[in-house]
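Backbone geometry:

***
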Amino acid sequence: MSLDGKITVLTLAVTDQARSLAFFTERAGFEKRTDVHPPGASRWVSVGLKGQDLEIALWEVGSPADPSQKELSKNWSPGKAPPILLRVADCRKVHQELSVRGVEFVSSPTDHPWGTVATFKDPDGNLFSMSQPPGARP
């Protein structure tokens, strides 16, 4: 038996949904996909890259969790997971554009046999590595 499905959402722990939403949409170039706050429930906010189905849900630490998730979510914390990988066509160009918008990089574009990589962080220290395949170098 194999799993028959599609990954559609990744959850990212953040300390402030509004600040994270502003960072991703105003600085990092993501689109807001979902922003709902039903009465008596936690706010659900997600962002994604244009033209892709995959969304990143911005889960605020300490927000009310569904009872089935309460035990699991108590150990979630920002900035503790490995980087989310983003494939880009021109790593140096995107690095320059995002740097101008105030995105903080923890590593500048570096060439490796597997491609050119640069890593930035969001306001909570969550990491995102941009990877440009070696055959895609301009």
About this structure: Residues 9-62+78-136 form a domain with the 2,3-Dihydroxybiphenyl 1,2-Dioxygenase; domain 1 fold (CATH 3.10.180.10). The first strand starts at residue 9 and ends at 14. The beta strands are 9-14, 31-36, 44-48, 55-60, 84-87, 104-112, 115-121, 127-132. The first helix runs from residue 17 to 27.
